[in-house]
Amino acid sequence: MSYLMKTAMQGQRVDNAGFDLIQNRIESLSGKMDTLINLQEKVLSRLDAEPVGTAKEENPKVSKEEILVSRGEVGQDVKEIYQEMSTIMSAVNQRSEMQALKLEGMEKLVLSMQQVISFIGETVKSSRVMELMFKGPATRKGNKGKPVLKMKSSDTKKTEKLKDHKGKDGAEKPCLIPKGLKGQMKMKPPDTSEEEEVQKIEAEEESTTEDASEGSELPDNQKEQTNASGDCDVASPSSEDDVDQIVELNIAEELVVVEETPKPDEEEEDNKEAKEEDEQEESEDWAVFRADGVEFQFDLKERLEREKETRGENEGQKEKEHVQQYHIDTAPPPAAPFSHRIVSAKPNQISNFYTINWQEVLGGGRFGQVHKCVENSSGLTLAAKVIKARAQKEKEVVKNEIQVMNNLDHANLIQLYAAYESRNDIILVLEYVGGGELFNRIIDENYTLMELDAVVFIRQICEGLQHMHKMYILHLDLKPENILCVSRVTNKIKIIDFGLARIYKPREKLRVNFGTPEFLAPEVINYDFVSFNTDMWSLGVITYMLLSGLCPFLGDDDNETLNNILACQWNLEEQEFVDTSEEAKDFISRLLVVNKSWRMGASEALRHPWLSDPVLHHKLNTKKTMCRSRRSSCVPPTDS
User: For 536, phi and psi rounded to 5 degrees?
Assistant: First the structure.
């Protein structure tokens, strides 16, 4: 990164030098122009002073030569400066492109480093070595700040062999681990002073081991080895099992010390230590790890609980294999009755090619109306969207919609067939979809909308958005009115109305100030940069409405609605969410997030359990309660 920064600084200095050269050339040209003007003034003054005849014979001839020479020099200088300016500007443009590529590379490098660091952090936190490393308690107050290791209850018999004794100064010294374990432990190279101490201890251990083997034989739990300096007692294991057990306790790659067993004749010290142990029980839940001067603290209790939850999830996953599953219909809706087309607005009368039923209105809005039509040559049933566009700016907006639809080829997105331009309007000929708006199903009293139906609807919307975002297109006006059902008997849908859609260029920050108030994302209201996750906020609002029939942010007027959105004031405590699954609530909570960077994307939403878990879908399929906004529809009618 430092190399890239240095290269950018060098390029900047080169650009500055080029501009300085141009400025010097311009100043030189300016001086020559001043000389030419002075010369002309002298010629005019001579013409005024000399007689007419003389002026005609001599002065004009001399002045013309001087003027021509001066003009030739100036013209040559101008030509040279122009060439140099062209060369320098081309070099500046190349430098700018190189700087842009380098900055983009730096951005990708930083993102990659962040991903690697997060991956390493998660791997280290979840590793077995870290777990064993942090099982020791924090520093014990009663042992004068010396660390201790708390053994497992099952290892009490093994730890009885490792005892401590008092040094010359009467202070209690913790004992080191047995010498036989040192070869099995991978440790960092110690400092020179530590190496000398370790060598001294090893020499003393070897001498005391020989003395103990030749001397009196004691029981295994009573063998102790004492050195002359009184620094430490070293206990040797009685069997390979003991060695394996102690290695397991000391796998943390640190020189660990063992907790001292209090003597029975020191009752006061025992009482004091008992109080200190009670105080330390609270602090033992935390483990401290230091690396490169950085200190990390981990909550061991929370980590153990997380491990239990993970084990529970694994067991639950095994149980799920035996649970009955239900696979929702993930087949795409019927494709358009024509292949994808690249359309441009033709300056022809649509009546020459299509018969439009002006009396049958399929829909309408701010743009105009949609009518049913039939192509004369093929008899194909289509939809004609009439958009009023008189000014050139209005026509450019419609042509942007045509360009967006030319880039979209997906079963869940409405397809464009043709376009015709006249003086007052542009007519788009679209794929015909006759199932009505999704909004009508939400408010229909006679339609029973189950949570599983909402899963099917939202999954298809996510698939359509996933394709749009893959093609770098933002819809920016996603709402139930812009989602059509293919038919009235199925749950297949298509997204329509790309009039406000924009082609997204990440390097060109995009701001918009339009949309439907109830579905606007906070970044649109704040006139901040928009991105793919702007559409995901609208998806969260649609999900909320499908499950409850309520709008999460609707106020008494548009200002109150926008304030509710900025404050992110919504809740799932309404009566309509009583029978809603926790997975659905979690899905909404991951979309209605003020910071767009923390929202789920379309691909992540498709992987969410609410949209992908067949076991959950089986439960929803067998559930008889309805996810309806109007509770009266859930109550059976009373006999009159």
Answer: -70, -30
The string of pLDDT tens digits covering residues 276-313 is: 665 555 555 555 555 555 555 656 667 777 777 777 77
| Reported confidence tier of residue 197, pLDDT bands at 50, 70, 90 | low
Q: For 597-614, what is the mean pLDDT?
A: 95
Pairwise CA distance, residues 585 & 572, whole Å: 7
| 341 burial level (CB within 10 Å; 0-12, 13-18, 19+) | middle
| Overall pTM surpassing 0.70 (yes/no) | no
Kindly state the helix (H) or strand (E) to which residue 82 belongs, with its residue range: helix 59-125
E strand spans, 389-476: 416-421, 425-431, 473-474
Alpha-carbon Rg for the chain in angstroms: 41
| Stretch 181-191: mean pLDDT | 43
Active site residue 556: no
Q: What mean pLDDT value characterizes the chain?
A: 74
Q: Is 266 exposed, middle or buried (0-12, 13-18, 19+ CB in 10 A)?
A: exposed
Euclidean distance between CA atoms 411 and 289, whole angstroms = 54
| Catalytic choice (233, 242, 477, 535) | 477
CB 592 within 8 A of CB 552: yes
Please give the structure tokens belonging to residue 572.
Answer: 């799932």
- Please name the amino acid found at residue 257: V
Rounded CA-CA distance 15/18 in Å is 5
Three-state SS string over 114-131 comes to HHHHHHHHHHHHCCHHHH
